[in-house]
Amino acid sequence: MKNIHTFHIPVLGLAFSIDTPIKVARFGISSVISIVEDKLIELMRKHYYPIAGKTYFPISTEETDYRAKRITDYLNLVNEIVELQLVKLKMEQFVEGSEIVKYFEMLANDHELKRKYVDMCHMEDGYTKLKTQDYLRTQIRAGSIDVNIMTKVDKDQYDLNGNIIEDGSDAVSALRGYAHCNLRNSSIVFSAGMNPRVYNYLLQWKEFDIDENGTFNKKIVIKVSDFRSALIQGKYLAKKGLWVSEYRIESGLNCGGHAFATDGYLLGPILEEFKRQKEELIRTIFEIYNEVLKVKYKKSFKYPPNVSFSVQGGIGTYEEQQFLLHYYQMDSIGWGTPFLLVPEATTVDDVTLNLLSNAKKEDICLSNNSPLGIRFHYLKGTTSEMEKNNRIHKKSPGSPCIEKHLAFNTEFTKEPICVASKKYQKLKLAQLNSFQLSESDFLMQVDEVLAKECLCVGLSNSAAINYNIPFIKNLPSVTICPGPNIVNFSKVVNLETMVSHIYGRLNIISNNERPNMFLAEINLYIDFIREQFNKDLVSGQLTKRKKYYDTFFANLLNGIEYYINLAKEQLVFSKEFTEGLKEAHKRLEILCLGV
Per residue in 195-223, pLDDT tens? Predict the structure, then answer.
């Protein structure tokens, strides 16, 4: 079914979108829940069961497969709450202030239901007006309740005898929890690349199989950074009889959370490749998929199942959304970071909300703080950063590693530990002290060790604070990972205001000098490669990595040239955009001369 809205709310950290469907799904808005942190999910079960008028029974860690059970039960609870909300909404009268009016008022002005609603509001004949209202009620439906699994977060779990629990790893058990839940017309979004163990486990669940109508109860969505990744992962799954229903394209750097930088490939050229080759992508994958169906299920289809293409990362204006929808033929646009300033949609504590609304460019950095070793967008000045710096000041760096979802390092220990933990940082700092390093090298490596921060707890605590249910005793600090786009929004707004901004009815951009999203991404890549360049220059690695830099610079220069030509063809781009491209080209050429 086609979505009611042309935007969706992507996954936002752990806590920040953990209950977003409960807040927005009844208005037709689709959103994504992270299901990686089962302790947080148990906390949300405890919070929402009484609100739903039901008795809460804890799912203990002593129970077999407790992680999957928690996830299944919470998703069922969210689904039940949303369904009841929808029933109530449909029964309301079309009067000012009602949720049914809010539902239709928030639709895009050119949506057929919005036009029908506006016509109804001006009808004078009472009978016709009531009949039209009855029709509008039949067209109301909830937004999709989707879930996210970051495939890299897939630590093995062990039984009491130290044996690996079969199908018990973090991502696999989360997938099992989702497969068991009663959500329909829902999707599981896989991010952070391909994990064969997780993808192969999909085969155990008929919930992801196609039905006789060519549709799915539960759909597979993969987040990708380029066309090649989409083709590789799509083919891999098709060979197993699994269909990817959506390719969710994300900017490598102009995004929130973990940033998977490309080798200088920019979003515009990437989207151009999808636009040019998506029919070939679908045809190629469908041929593979159909052959598997013939063998495995003794059936095949004449036409491929539906495939959607969406994009997210740094979008901030109605004009940008429209260009992505129409020129690049995208089906939906992800608006993540701006929704952190919408308490009606996301769960952010007051202290962090204040930091976000006052954030300036210098407050957002592409940090090395993630224990995964992947660059991580980070808001400075959070309570988590203060807590981390206080431990360093007391000469007791590192976090108590309680959740252990990111415990992958075996540099010093047989059992994997997290590089943000006290144990690892103590061992690593002792090792660095034993090396004969220059002062600059020593300080640089120490900074990299101390930068690592506990994300399991930091990204969960916002919900714990908002709902006054402690997550981890004596560890109340919050980490948040907005995209650089947050500096262009400075007001805490309600849901209707944000949606009106997305659809061009209002403009809440606070930064009058905000560059076009494509130009912002170019400058992020230039800053990124300059940082890498300076680091390799200091360490003496520049010559060894010349091929990497040549490729990166060539791709970036080609991308800028693409935008220059695009601006000549498309009148939507401003003079400032063209001038910004020329300035970026000059900056990049200066860097190129140093290689």
Answer: 999 999 999 999 999 998 899 999 999 99
Q: How many domains does the chain have?
A: 2
Which residues, in sequence order, are bridge partners of residue 254?
none
Supply the range of the domain harboring residue 565.
515-595
pTM of the model: 0.97
Q: Which of 138, 161, 185 is the last residue of a domain?
A: 185
Judge whether 145 and 74 are in contact, CB under 8 Å. Answer: no
Question: Which amino acid type is present at position 382?
Answer: T
Q: What is the rounded radius of gyration, in angstroms, for the C-alpha atoms of the chain?
A: 25
Q: How far apart are CA 491 and CA 508, in angstroms?
A: 8
Provide the token pair at 15: 């806590």
In a domain, residue 394? The reply is no
Q: Are 384 and 370 in contact (CB under 8 A)?
A: no
Q: How far apart are alpha carbons 113 and 95 in whole angstroms?
A: 17
Q: Is there a domain that residue 487 lies in? A: no
Question: Which H or E run contains 7?
Answer: strand 7-9
Helices of type H across 471-516: 495-502
Among the listed residues 157, 245, 154, 260, the one whose alpha carbon sits nearest the alpha carbon of residue 200: 154
Q: What percent helix, strand, coil does the chain show, rounded to 5? A: 50, 10, 40
Residue 72 falls inside a structural domain: yes
Residue 534: both structure tokens together: 């300076």
Written as six digits, the tokens of 186 are 């829902």
Cβ atoms of residues 256 and 481 within 8 Å: yes
84: phi then psi, degrees, rounded to nearest 5: -65, -40
User: How confident is the model at residue 298, as a pLDDT?
Assistant: 87
Asked if residue 117 belongs to a domain, the reply is yes
User: Which residues contact residue 513 at a Cβ distance below 8 angstroms, ignoring those fewer than 6 apart?
Assistant: none
Task: For residue 304, give both structure tokens.
Answer: 């491929």
**Which of 139, 166, 185 is the endpoint of a domain?**
185
For the chain, give the percent of residues with pLDDT over 70.
100
Q: Tell me how far apart the alpha carbons of residues 432 and 468 are, in angstroms, rounded to a whole number.
A: 41
Distance CA 333, CA 559 (A): 22
